[in-house]
Design goal:
11% strand; alpha/beta; four-stranded mixed sheet; 194 residues; 2 domains; Collagenase (Catalytic Domain)
Length: 194
């Protein structure tokens, strides 16, 4: 019995080591080739939502509308101008113009899964959405908070920045993901209905 327990512990230890190595490789992969040749850039950043997992058609349409609003922001002069002027702290070593170029290097493809948060997520932590490296092509939106396209859009932008490798240490408004929230709320009135 002790031998079986020892084998299980060794297996668990190896799995933890494997997972840590996987995460380190993922982060290192994200850090390479951030500067993009000008000749291959899109005219503006673009998010392509490839799949939506929602409870019904109405919720799915709301997320689609949020994606349309997010793309309207990304294509706007307001976004480009404000992004250039913002003071970011967690930029992966990129200057503002390089962040803009990095975002328009290729369409940001993602899937959205809308989920029902639990008591801790909804009432204690206030989790609006999240991204996890375990599902790198997905962003997750909490339907407790995402109730219309104007709530969905800034969260799609925020989580898409995580998908692109930008992080924040806590809720830093000077991070690129939180910067997207600020850009949406500052430029959003100019976007029209989604």
């Amino acid at each position: 019995m002790q031998d079986l327990r020892d084998r299980i512990l060794v297996l668990l230890f190896l799995l933890v080591i494997f997972f840590i190595v996987f995460l380190i490789q993922s982060v290192n992969t994200l850090e390479t080739n951030l500067k993009v040749p000008q000749e291959i850039l899109l005219s503006h950043p673009e998010i392509q939502i490839e799949r939506i997992e929602a409870k019904d058609q109405e919720e799915s349409k709301m997320i689609q509308s949020g994606g349309i609003l997010a793309n309207k922001l990304l294509a706007s002069t307001c976004f480009k101008d404000m992004l250039r002027e913002m003071r970011f702290t967690e930029t992966r070593g990129l200057k503002n113009e390089e962040i803009y170029d990095y975002l328009r290097a290729k369409p940001i493809k993602l899937n959205v899964q809308v989920y029902s948060g639990n008591f801790i997520e909804n009432d204690i932590l206030g989790v609006i959405g999240f991204f996890t490296p375990l599902y790198p092509e997905y962003i997750f939106q909490n339907r407790h908070y995402i109730v219309n396209s104007y709530e969905a859009a800034p969260n799609i932008l925020h989580e898409a920045m995580h998908l692109m490798g930008f992080r924040h240490n806590g809720a830093l408004e000077s991070s690129v993901p939180y910067g997207m929230d600020a850009l949406f709320f500052n430029c959003g009135s100019k976007l029209g209905e989604g």
